Amino acid sequence: MNKYKCLLREWCDYLVSRQRDDGGFSCEACETIHGRADNAIFPLIYMFSETGDCRYLLTAQKLISFRKNFEHSDGAVQNDYGSEWKGITVFSAINLYKTLHFFAEVLPENFRKNLEEKFRNSCNWVYENVVDGFRANINYYAAASAVNTMCGEYFGEEKFTIRAKNLLDYCMKNFTENGLLTGEGQPHNFTTEKGCFPVDIGYNLEESFPCLVDTAEILNDEKILKKLSAYGKEFLMFMLPDGGWDNSFGSRNNKWTYYGSRTSDGCIGAFIRLSKFDPVFYEAAERTFEMLFACTHNGALYGGRFYKENGQPPCVHHTFCHAAALADALCAGLHTSRNRQKIPCETMKNGYKYYKELDTYKIRAGRWLATVTAYDFSTYTYARGAAHSSGGALSLLYHKDYGAVVAGSVYEYKLTEQFNMQNPTDEINHRPLIPRAEYKKDGKNYATCFDGNAQIIATESDGKTFVKVKSKFVCVEEKCAENDELFAEFFYEFSDEKITISAAINQQKSDVVFVLPIIKNTAKIFTENSFKKEKIFFLTGGFSADEFTFEMDEKITVTIS
Question: In sequence order, what DSSP letters do the residues of 267-283 get, joined into one string?
Answer without folding.
Answer: SHHHHHHHTTT-THHHH
